[in-house]
Design a protein that fits this description.
about 260 residues; TIM Barrel; binds 2-phosphoglycolic acid
Length: about 260
């Protein structure tokens, strides 16, 4: 089987105006504009996507959104369709982030509909899954994550499943400075892969699984050296272009380990 090409994706969350996004793109391309060892993705707020499309066009950096509607178009005030995202040159979309599950009450049913629609619209979903601290301390982390994977990827063909990217993000590690140990992250990513194998057999080996939660320039190499971790979804540490470039370079070192 061909080796899975790693992905380092920045999730800007609700940060950066259009002019800040433009400055960032220029600085990022100066530092990592010609790397090929990992795929770099910036998942930006909707308002910055058009500017980033112009700045990043023809570059190695891919563009992503952080959410989308489960409908293609219609009377859904305030929603954004996947068609609008592909029109802005997005190739990725983050779906089911824990902040949306918890704060916006998104359900597995909503997320499953979005994953299916993203795929049929030509977008690559980055599906986020992960347990909270109570669930981890109660020894239920793997069961919780398995359940999310099974429900959110229900009804996909093997060919569709192969195009999904999964981000394992333990909720207690997001924005807290507490990273899961690289071994715990590896164990969960391996657990996710075995769940996928149960659903779709050998296709599981093609699916890219990222780790997210307080990933920093100084812990990325160790995470990347693990066999089932194919990259990272990075929040806070993606906001500064110099720091994010350093993280990308360290990720490449980790892959080589
Ligand atoms: P963090 O966020 O890197 O700031 O912990 C990760 C995420 O929420 O995707």
């Amino acid at each position: 089987m061909a080796k899975r090409h790693p992905i380092i994706a920045g999730n800007w969350k609700m940060y950066k105006t259009v002019s800040e996004a433009r400055d960032y793109a220029v600085k990022l391309l100066e530092k990592v504009g010609d790397i090929t060892e990992v795929d770099v993705v910036i998942c930006a707020p909707f308002t910055a996507l058009s500017t980033l499309k112009d700045e990043l066009e023809e570059s190695i950096v891919h563009l992503g959104a952080q959410n989308m509607s489960w409908a293609l178009e219609g009377a859904y005030t305030g929603e954004i369709s996947p068609k609008m995202l592909t029109d802005l040159a997005c190739t990725y979309v983050v779906l089911g982030h824990s902040e949306r599950r918890e704060l916006m009450r998104e359900t597995d049913e909503d997320i499953a509909k979005k994953v299916k629609l993203a795929l049929s619209s030509g977008l690559i979903p980055i599906l986020c899954v992960g347990e909270n601290l109570t669930q981890r301390e109660g020894g239920r982390a793997l069961g919780i994550v398995r359940g999310q994977v099974e429900r959110d990827l229900a009804d996909l063909s093997a060919e569709e499943l192969a195009r999904v990217v999964i981000a394992y993000e333990p909720i207690w590690a997001i924005g807290t400075g507490k990273t899961a140990s690289s071994q715990d992250a590896q164990d969960m990513c391996a657990g996710i892969r075995s769940t996928l194998a149960g659903i779709a057999g050998s296709v599981a080996d093609e699916v890219k699984i990222l780790y997210g939660g307080s990933v920093k320039p100084d812990n990325i190499a160790e995470l990347m050296s693990k066999p089932d971790i194919d990259g990272a979804l990075v929040g806070g540490a993606s906001l500064d272009p110099d720091g994010f470039s350093k993280l990308i370079m360290n990720a490449i070192e980790g892959v080589r380990k």
